[in-house]
Specification:
The chain has one domain. Helix 2 crosses helix 4 (112-145), helix 4 runs antiparallel to helix 9 and helix 7 (183-202) packs antiparallel against helix 8. With 323 residues, the protein is mainly α. The protein has 9 helices and 2 strands, in the order H-H-H-H-H-H-H-H-H-E-E. The longest helix is centred in the middle third of the chain and has 34 residues, at 112-145.
């Protein structure tokens, strides 16, 4: 059978047994993605969520830890850029090699470009959604805790007096009151942990094997350097950085677990369309003696060969374990 078009491949999702309907899956996925993205932006860049425990801030005024001089911040944006963009480069390199050089028969009906788009969209989509969720959780903790930054009382002595719960705060004052946990450390740790798990469990690059330790080492050093930098310029406390790394690592582990399990059905049989986040999710048509039957969102691949009168089931493993 020759190569199929996207229209031919995606048409198999319209089979009677496929649930949910294709249009409903797309609508749900896009809606959830947009909701978390908008919520993350509101919490990060606006005063949409009021600060709680604001009346207790003056109790910390006598602590010299919060009277430090703020230094110039020239590199935080660069740390964010390298942390968040690095995994896109990693996925591009890994999926490019797999798409153009893999011998896995499950993807022979795709062109190399289609294989690259189809396979790279999964980890990238999970990564972006994970960034949104991690950012939302981090900023909600900031709102709940209300922990001043090291420079806060040095620049805002009026907060040493009793402050009303309904106090009108500028965005700069609000930023100064939300030190815990460190947002940069959370995002960097999330990226580092997810990238490390991705390269360890999902990537087999025999031609450029040094990519794994190099990328993982760079992500790790970037996280540590970012945390030290934030403490050095008196924008965060050590406790902010440590807890931020812990939170980011936890969510990185959760996202990796979801991504890893999304390729498998309960009985460990390979599934191309079990992943519920972003398109394309397509069952592959019959090819070279393989029959693919949809049951819900699980694709079962069976290969029948007559060896000693017995039916042989194709060994099940995620596609990334194939060379």
């Amino acid at each position: 059978m020759g190569e199929e078009t996207w229209k031919d491949i995606l048409a198999y999702e319209q089979s009677k047994g496929f649930r949910p309907p294709h249009w409903l899956a797309v609508l749900t996925e896009v809606t959830v993605f947009l909701v978390f993205g908008i919520l993350a932006a509101l919490l990060r860049f606006t005063d949409w969520a009021p600060l709680l425990q604001l009346q207790n801030v003056q109790l910390l005024c006598t602590d010299s830890t919060f009277h430090q001089e703020r230094l110039s911040d020239d590199a935080t944006r660069l740390y964010y850029t390298f942390s968040m963009a690095g995994i896109f480069v990693l996925v591009f390199i890994c999926e490019f090699e797999r798409s153009y050089y893999s011998s896995d028969p499950n993807y022979k009906l795709f062109t190399a470009t289609q294989r690259f788009f189809y396979m790279s969209l999964r980890p990238i989509g999970m990564y972006i959604m994970g960034i949104f969720i991690t950012s939302v959780i981090t900023d909600f903790i900031k709102v709940l805790v209300v922990y001043p930054r090291p420079y806060f009382f040095d620049e805002n002595p009026r907060f040493c007096h009793e402050i009303s719960v309904n106090e009108n705060l500028t965005l700069e004052e609000r930023y100064g009151l939300t030190s815990f946990p460190c947002h940069l450390s959370t995002i960097s740790a999330f990226t580092t942990f997810l990238a490390s798990c991705y390269t360890h469990t999902s990537v087999s690059l025999h031609s450029i094997s040094l990519v794994k330790p190099i990328f993982c080492g760079c992500f790790f050093l970037l996280t540590i350097a970012g945390g030290i930098y934030r403490v050095t310029i008196n924008y965060n406390h050590w406790i902010d950085v440590v807890c931020g790394i812990a939170i980011g690592s936890f969510f990185g582990y959760i996202v990796n677990l979801v991504l890893l399990q999304s390729y498998k059905s309960r009985n460990q049989i390979i599934t191309e369309n079990a992943w519920k986040l972003l398109l394309p999710r397509a069952t592959l048509p019959k090819q070279n003696g393989f029959s693919h039957s949809s049951e819900g969102n699980t694709v079962h691949s069976n290969r029948s060969n007559s060896r000693n009168g017995r039916q042989i089931r194709r060994s099940s493993q995620p596609y990334w374990l194939s060379d």
